[in-house]
Every structure is written in C-alpha cells, then in structure tokens.
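Whiteboard transcription, Tuesday session. T.W. wrote the structure tokens on the left side:
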C-alpha cells in the first residue's frame, strides 16, 4: 500500500514575538496583528540544516534498514542556500543515504513541498521528501510577521503506511501572488483580496474536486482539511467553497510559529495527525502557481504515533529583539571586530575527500582495541600503544554524549555571543572538541547530556560559501533519560 510511512518536523527554538517586531517597526510600518510569535532560525541554521533536522526526526520513526533502501530524495524550498551546488546533495550526505539514490532540488513556489510529495506518492520505491524554508520579506511588512522558519520531512514507502494514499490532483496556472527575482534578496507579495478571491477560491476547489473524483470520494468522506494560507479566514472560505465545511479545519499555527513556507503544508499535516483516528481521511491542499490536493487515509499504524509537533511547539524560547532577524539573515551590516574579519577558505578538495567525516559525522573504531577516533585514522591509538590497522566506520551523529569541559568565550568572534565550545565524551567511545549552539548554549556545563545537530560551521562573507559540521546542543529530557537508561 503506497502512503506515508513516517513524518518529522523541525522548528527553530527562537520564537520572535510579534509584539517585539511591532515595538521595533510600527513607527514606520504599522502591523495589524501583534499576537503570538514566529519562529526564527538561529544564526547557524538555514534550509539545509533545518531539512536535515526534520529528516532525522522522520527517519527516527523508520526501521534502520529503511535508510539504506531510500532510492530518491527531494529537497523543496523557496529559499535555497545555493544556486549551485545542489542543496539536496548536502542533505543526502548528512543523512548518509545510499550513493545510488537520486537527489533533486525543487522550488519556485510555496507549493513545491506538496508537489514533491505528490510525485513521490505517484512514484515507486521509498522516497524521502524534505521541505524547509526561511521566507524572506521586507522589514516591517505583514509577510515578515506572518511567515516563520521551519522544516518537515515525509518518508513515502519502505514500511507500513501511517496514511494510505487514496488519490491526488495538481493544477498549474501562471497566477503570481508572490515573486522574487533571482538577484533580489526579498520577496514581494501582491494584493491580498485578489489572491484570495481569484487565486485560492478559484484554483484550490478545482484541485480538490479533481482529487475527490479520482479517488471515488465525495466531500462528506473527508474528516480533516489542511490548507496553509497567511490570509486570515482563507482556508475556511476554501473549505466552504469545496464542500468541506464539515471537515475539521487543521490548525494553521499562526500564533505558535507562523507559516513555514514550503514546509507548512507538511507541518500542518503532522499536527493534524496528532488528532486523527484510524479510518479517518485528510485532504491536504496548497496554493501557488496552481494548486495541489492529496487525499490520505489513516491506518491502524497511526494509533500511538507521535509526529512530535506538540513537543516542538512547546520547546520554543521567547525572543523580543527584532534586530536578531535581519542580523541572522545577513540583511544588516554590523561591526564584527577584528576577529570577525578573518577570511574563511572553502577548501573544496579537502571537503570532498573528507565528506563522510565532515557531513556524515562518521569516525573510526578499531576492531582490535575498540577505541573510537574522530577523524578516523590508519593508526589506532590505545593505552597499549599504536596499532596500524584499518578502522571500521563508526557513525557518531545519533549517539549523543556528555559535556566534559565547557567554555563561553566573549573574545572570540560569534554571530550570537558568547562563542561556546568544549570537550564532549561521545556515548560508546571517543572525545571531541565541539562547538555548542542554540540560544541557551552558554548554560551547558560539565556533566550535561547533549545530542548532535548539523549546523553551519562558518560563512565566507566574500563568496557566500558556507561550511557545515556537527555541533552539540542540550539534550531534550527524553533523550537524556534514554541515554541514562542505556548506560
């Protein structure tokens, strides 16, 4: 049975309050709504790192063997980090997916994540769909307030389906409600009423009708309806126009995190799954240069499944400083000091030769001594001396560890001082000097449990190139508890 077998999301922990945004910008551009908050990616988070985090959360629900069976990876975003190289290849490397799998980028519309899911559901073989976005809008605009940052990932095939695919439809139309030229940093939105009346209310019901007809269903057969839109009341109006007024309208999460762009249909679907019962059907739709509508039916496997949305929403950290948004985005020039002016060399040759270690976070383990080293070496080090022997690959990303030493350095350059780092004892062996990250990194102390996240290591301001590596963040309570149980 074709369908969704796992789903996971990632929301950055910072929640920038709209009241704080209003306090900074309302003198210039008054906003209509100062309720709630939007997610704000930390300085070392972007679409690639958020996509990796969501994909890891998704794959954690799948059997380990499934990772090796994935034959396609689709990475969807309207805010790609690189025009070149392929962004999906970096996500692929961080997840250590098989080299034989096909990886591709998609974008150009907020609907790109759902289009990628539609293609995966109509295709064959296990496919991982990853959608991540950091929508960019002018300072002080309503769009800046309504959109947030986030990611979601869906695994299609490769196991028992949580949601079985019943049918879908996609329409394409040259309806432009939002645009950004290739050489421009910020997107521009068109007039809201026209987008709602001529865009959403014209195209989305047509796609829904086609999907229902293809599946042999009628609107009364749908119990849940997912439609992301930053326009207030738009989803409810579309539901009524499509005959879905009796279906439960999914939470748009505008108060909690804002609209996460290309990822938001999947984020809202994951939220709806927390409330669905086996046998119920959900219709997921999204608008953008046309419309896509997919019908999915919950199976018995959904019972007891936790997509993790409630935990992600509860894990936010309140932030009222609006200036962090333009600075983290690189939209505001600021004084970096002498240490912030040092060049960062991309060293692409070294990066490729060591990609498994740098992107996949794979070390080496000596079969003879059992010692773990990072990076892997042809010379194994042990208390008994040196051993010249091949080491077996030893993935470290999912192991977590314990802080051995911690430093919060206010002299070293950081885009969010202090610069935090220290020695980490990795579960199962190995000790490594690592950067600590996330807004509460300075609180980490010796003895604290950590887990590892894929983040930006540093940025080359001259060329725009950025390097990635793994960092340590405070482990969530359940992870720390699981490590203690396994020790």
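and on the right, the sequence the group agreed on:
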């Amino acid at each position: 049975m074709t369908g969704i077998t796992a789903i996971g999301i990632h929301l950055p922990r910072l929640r920038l309050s709209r009241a704080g945004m209003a306090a900074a910008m309302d003198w210039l551009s008054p906003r209509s709504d100062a309720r709630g908050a939007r997610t704000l990616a930390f300085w070392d988070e972007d679409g690639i790192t958020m996509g990796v985090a969501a994909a890891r959360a998704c794959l954690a629900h799948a059997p380990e063997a499934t990772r090796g069976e994935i034959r396609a990876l689709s990475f969807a975003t309207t805010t790609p980090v690189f025009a070149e190289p392929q962004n999906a290849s970096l996500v692929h490397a961080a997840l250590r997916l098989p080299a034989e799998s096909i990886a591709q980028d998609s974008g150009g519309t907020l609907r790109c994540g759902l289009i990628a899911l539609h293609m995966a559901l109509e295709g064959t073989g296990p496919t991982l769909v990853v959608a991540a976005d950091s929508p960019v809008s002018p300072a002080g605009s309503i769009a800046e307030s309504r959109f947030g940052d986030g990611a979601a990932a869906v695994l299609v095939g490769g196991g028992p389906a949580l949601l079985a695919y019943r049918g879908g439809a996609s329409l394409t139309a040259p309806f432009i409600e939002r645009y950004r030229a290739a050489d421009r940093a910020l997107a521009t939105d068109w007039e809201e009423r026209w987008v709602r009346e001529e865009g959403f209310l014209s195209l989305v019901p047509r796609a829904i009708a086609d999907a229902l007809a293809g599946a042999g269903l009628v609107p009364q057969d749908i119990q849940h309806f997912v439609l992301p839109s930053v326009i207030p009341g738009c989803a409810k109006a579309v539901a009524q126009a499509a005959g879905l007024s009796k279906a439960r309208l999914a939470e748009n999460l505008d108060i909690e995190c804002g609209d996460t762009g290309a990822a938001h249909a999947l984020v809202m679907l994951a939220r709806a799954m927390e409330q669905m019962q086996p046998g119920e059907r959900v219709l997921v739709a999204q608008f953008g240069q046309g419309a896509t509508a997919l019908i999915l039916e919950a199976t018995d496997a959904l019972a007891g499944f936790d997509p993790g949305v409630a935990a992600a929403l509860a894990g936010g950290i309140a932030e009222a400083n609006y200036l962090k948004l333009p600075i983290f985005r690189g939209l505001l020039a600021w004084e970096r000091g002498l240490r912030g002016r040092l060049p960062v060399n991309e060293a692409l040759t070294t990066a490729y030769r060591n990609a498994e270690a740098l992107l996949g976070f794979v070390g080496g383990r000596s079969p003879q001594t059992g010692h773990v080293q990072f990076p892997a070496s042809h010379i194994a080090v042990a208390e008994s001396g040196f051993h010249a022997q091949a080491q077996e690959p030893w993935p470290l990303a999912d192991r977590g560890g314990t802080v051995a030493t911690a430093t919060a350095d206010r002299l070293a350059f950081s885009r969010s001082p202090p610069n935090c780092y220290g020695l980490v004892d990795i579960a199962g062996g190995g000790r490594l000097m690592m950067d600590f990250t996330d807004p509460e990194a300075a609180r980490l102390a010796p003895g604290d449990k950590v887990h590892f996240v894929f983040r930006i290591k540093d940025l080359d301001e001259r060329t725009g190139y950025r390097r990635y590596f793994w960092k340590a963040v405070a482990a969530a309570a359940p992870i720390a508890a699981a490590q203690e149980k396994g020790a």
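Someone added at the bottom: The chain is about 25% helix and 30% strand.
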